[in-house]
Amino acid sequence: MKSVTDCRRLSSRPPSGGRTFVIRIRHDGNEVVKPLRRVSMMVIDFEVSRSPAYTVASILKVGPYREDNLRNEFGELVAWAKENRLRTGKWIMYEHDGPNSRRPGNQRRWEACLEIRGKGKPEGRIRIKKLPAQTVAKVVFNPNVISSRIIYHGLGDWIWWRLKYKDFKRAGPTREVYAGDPWTNEKAWSKVEVQVLVEK
């Protein structure tokens, strides 16, 4: 299974952070120092925790998956927030109908939710709502270091076993949470939090 919105563009840049290693090469009696790309170490694990409540401006989209899924919707939300002088926070991307949904592919529901701080009024297809605090199974990772499909398959299997042994009563939908714009903000992109809402 791919990411919630499958919107991300895996960067070809080497991972940032970690230790820089160098290789020393002797050429014609002179020592040349060449840096190798940085190596980043990270530990990936799944956990269950309580997600805080968010007040968001949202746009619901119905249709098939696209490479830049929800990018236009977030652009509309950001422009609206700027026009209304509202501060923004988390970017939350929902996949309401997963790949195993009974809905046809061209009727799958996706939702762009932009956290807002302040009072905003609905406008056009923009809605204001409160996402309640919820229990989630989650994982945080850097897509530049580990493939998102590995994360999603691993998290999906882990939840399946928790459902099988009745640790969870139900699970879903799935969402991705970013600290900012994942298309333009490398820091936000490199620390995506995938959450699956669960009920114990």
Please tell me about this protein's structure.
- The chain is α+β, with helices and mostly antiparallel strands.
- It has one domain (47-199): Alpha-Beta Barrel (Multidrug-efflux Transporter 1 Regulator Bmrr, Chain A).
- Helices cover 17% and strands 37% of the residues.
- It has helices spanning 71-83, 148-164, 186-189; strands spanning 22-27, 30-35, 47-51, 54-62, 87-95, 109-117, 127-131, 134-141, 170-178, 192-199.
- The strands form two sheets. Strands 3-8-10-9-5-6-4-7 form an eight-stranded antiparallel β-sheet, covered by helices on one side. Strands 1-2 form a two-stranded antiparallel sheet.
- The radius of gyration is 20 Å and the shape is globular.
Give the helix/strand layout.
Layout: E1 22-27, E2 30-35, E3 47-51, E4 54-62, H1 71-83, E5 87-95, E6 109-117, E7 127-131, E8 134-141, H2 148-164, E9 170-178, H3 186-189, E10 192-199
- Classify the oligomer: single chain
Instruction: Please name the CATH topology.
Output: Multidrug-efflux Transporter 1 Regulator Bmrr, Chain A
Largest sheet: 8 strands, antiparallel
Shape: globular
Spans of 5+ residues with little confidence (pLDDT < 50)? 1-28
* Major beta sheet, strand line-up: 3-8-10-9-5-6-4-7
